[in-house]
């Protein structure tokens, strides 16, 4: 009887071990796919990873230089990644996994941003680290995608779309750290500084115009509202709004107001864009046809600092 029980025990143990080993062999690849096997390794330059091969050399070097300058001034990291296709994978999940694996941003600050473009899928994602979710809200990242990137990407102009979006993100991050765009510009080599300052001058002109138009609209809207309220309702609506605003401030609620953190103007870059109809095929670098030659001598090498993301940001088609 004891021998029979021992034999049954051995068979049961062998079957149990076999089942466990089989399960490990079946599910181990699935677990591994969430790690290194699923995502590409970052390039030595880190700030730009053009796996789809859609960016010019000048655009890459501009991104690397701006990204390195931002990191030196703030410790924050903004990385651009292009891939050919995600083969049906959800871009939000993929971006979050890639962000965590690369450790974009610093571990103690989680101050990284990932701009991911799946070219053939025509999908774009801006993934934001925990520490920058206040500066780059879902609404703000959606605005950057739709106004400063999609118009170019939808036309196949990846240089202009990704560079313009990159600078928009960098501007938001810099302001969060109290760093001016002048400080970033001063850290750039002379050729990149010329391109960067060209963008800023153009932005200032278009931004002022759109800001004036927006302010004029608000003023006219207020006059129309007051006229209607005074004639029809004898200013009762205005009195009610004043009471609500007073109570809101009294109880410590956030003050109401027009606008917000937007410094880009209401109309994006629109119109003819920069230079010869948009940024041009080579981004800012195409303006430098007279400079020619290689932009060597700049060490843009970097790596992730261990930052993490909780899924903040936005994504969509273009």
Describe this structure in words.
This protein has 318 residues and is an alpha/beta fold. Among the domains are: 48-203, Diaminopimelate Epimerase, Chain A, domain 1, CATH 3.10.310.50; 215-246. Helices cover 51% and strands 10% of the residues. The chain contains 8 helices and 5 strands, in the order αβαβαββαααααβ. It is extended, with a radius of gyration of 26 Å. Residues 25-36, 203-211 and 252-298 have low confidence and may be disordered.
Descriptive keywords:
5-stranded mixed β-sheet; single chain; Diaminopimelate Epimerase, Chain A, domain 1; 5 strands; alpha/beta; 318 residues
In which order are the strands of the major sheet placed?
1-2-3-4-5
SSE sequence, one letter per element: HEHEHEEHHHHHE
Number of helices: 8
CATH architecture of one domain: Roll
CATH topology of one domain: Diaminopimelate Epimerase, Chain A, domain 1
| CATH top level label of one domain | Alpha Beta
Unreliable spans = 25-36, 203-211, 252-298
How would a textbook summarize the main sheet?
5 strands, mixed
- The tally of strands reads 5
The average pLDDT is 77
The percent range for strand residues is 5-15%
Structural class: alpha/beta
Overall outline: extended
Distance from N terminus to C terminus (CA atoms, Å) equals 74 Å
Secondary structure layout plus pairing:
Layout: H1 2-32, E1 48-50, H2 57-74, E2 77-83, H3 91-102, E3 112-118, E4 123-129, H4 138-153, H5 158-176, H6 181-187, H7 190-233, H8 236-250, E5 309-317
Parallel strand pairs: 1-2, 2-3
Antiparallel strand pairs: 3-4, 4-5
């Amino acid at each position: 009887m004891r021998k029979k029980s021992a034999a049954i025990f051995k068979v049961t143990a062998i079957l149990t071990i076999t089942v466990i080993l089989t399960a490990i062999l079946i599910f181990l690849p699935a677990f591994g796919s969430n790690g290194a096997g699923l995502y590409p390794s970052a390039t030595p330059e880190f700030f730009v990873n053009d796996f789809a091969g859609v960016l010019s050399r000048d655009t890459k070097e501009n991104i690397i230089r701006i990204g390195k300058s931002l990191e030196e001034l703030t410790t924050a990291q903004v990385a651009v990644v292009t891939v050919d296709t995600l083969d049906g994978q959800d871009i939000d999940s993929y971006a979050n996994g890639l962000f965590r694996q690369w450790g974009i941003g610093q571990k103690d600050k989680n101050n990284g941003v990932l701009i991911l473009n799946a070219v053939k899928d025509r999908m774009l994602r801006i993934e934001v680290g925990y520490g920058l979710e206040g500066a780059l809200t879902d609404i703000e990242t959606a605005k950057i995608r739709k106004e400063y990137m999609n118009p170019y990407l939808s036309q196949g102009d990846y240089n202009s779309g990704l560079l313009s979006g990159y600078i928009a993100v960098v501007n938001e991050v810099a302001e969060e750290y109290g760093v001016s765009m002048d400080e970033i510009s001063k850290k750039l080599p002379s050729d990149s500084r010329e391109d960067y300052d060209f963008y800023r001058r153009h932005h200032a002109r278009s931004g002022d115009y759109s800001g004036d138009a927006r302010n004029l609209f608000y003023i006219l809207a207020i006059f129309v509202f007051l006229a209607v309220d005074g004639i029809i309702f004898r200013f009762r609506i205005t009195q009610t709004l004043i009471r609500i605003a007073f109570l809101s401030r009294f109880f410590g609620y956030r003050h109401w107001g027009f606008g917000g953190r937007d410094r880009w103007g209401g109309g994006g870059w629109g119109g003819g864009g920069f230079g010869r109809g948009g940024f041009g095929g080579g981004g800012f670098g195409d303006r430098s046809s007279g400079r020619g030659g290689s932009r060597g001598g700049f060490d843009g090498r970097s790596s992730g600092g261990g930052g993490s993301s909780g899924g903040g940001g936005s994504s969509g088609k273009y």
